[in-house]
Recover the amino acids of this structure.
């Protein structure tokens, strides 16, 4: 069988299936390049995966062997164990995959494109999942930005490219999250641009200019008027920018402590 047959169709269909049955929480990664990057790390780790078929029932063991990128992204999964699981897999079968990367839970749903063999062992080629549930560890403290003191952030796709605008939701020395309206979030995802040029003026008056790499976006709760939260991470902050960000985080932390109810 052709390893890449119907990959685009499987990816499109997977979007609907993942919406119904896949990961849906504040830790959903939806940017394809970031999904591929995380899954390549999972393949390198050779960790044990637990796989369930779409009709439920028993869990089977497998491993992610590789993430192929040409001409379309395809995952290569090892044969299910016990053998009963393998006998139930064919092209079109939906796999619900659970595992851990560096101790962090990870899950995704993907459809089998074809079933092949290598050295007498079955290999399943599946489409890149449209969403990935992954509770990434944060090394840096994130300070929340109050709605009463909005900080506007402007993103641009290259020099003279399409511009986007959002409000700062939280910030750390390693990244930030933005409050975006749904249309803006959809435009950013549709553009596929990463990194983006980022500009904002901090309350101190410091003009912050940097590149950001879009990691994921997801809907917030209905109480937030259905806004989309886009999460970005700084790359290449110079010394003066890092100091300005650190001071702003310290100011936010002090404000948080000052307004915290006393017990």
């Amino acid at each position: 069988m052709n390893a890449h047959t119907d990959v685009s169709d499987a990816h499109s269909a997977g979007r609907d299936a993942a919406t119904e049955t896949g990961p849906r929480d504040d830790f959903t990664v939806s940017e394809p390049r970031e999904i591929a990057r995380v899954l390549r790390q999972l393949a390198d780790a050779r960790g044990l995966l637990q796989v369930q078929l779409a009709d439920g029932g028993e869990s089977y063991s497998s491993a992610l062997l590789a993430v192929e990128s040409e001409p379309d992204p395809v995952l290569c999964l090892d044969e299910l164990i016990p053998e009963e699981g393998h006998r139930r897999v064919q092209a079109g079968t939906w796999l619900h995959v659970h595992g851990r990367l560096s101790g962090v839970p990870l899950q995704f749903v993907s459809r089998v494109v074809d079933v092949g063999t290598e050295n007498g062992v079955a290999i399943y080629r599946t489409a890149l999942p449209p969403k990935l549930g992954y509770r990434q560890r944060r090394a840096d403290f994130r300070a929340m930005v109050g709605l009463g003191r909005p900080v506007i952030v402007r993103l641009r796709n290259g020099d003279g490219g399409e511009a986007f605008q959002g409000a700062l939701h939280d910030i750390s020395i390693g990244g930030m999250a933005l409050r975006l309206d749904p249309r803006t979030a959809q435009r950013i995802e549709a553009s596929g641009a990463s990194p983006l040029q980022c500009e904002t003026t901090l309350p101190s008056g410091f003009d912050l200019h940097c590149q950001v790499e879009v990691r994921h976006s997801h809907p917030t709760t209905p109480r937030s008027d259905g806004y989309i939260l886009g999460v970005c991470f700084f790359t290449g902050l110079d010394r003066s920018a890092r100091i300005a960000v650190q001071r702003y985080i310290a100011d936010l932390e002090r404000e948080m402590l000052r307004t915290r109810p006393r017990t």
In short: The two ends are 66 Å apart (CA to CA).
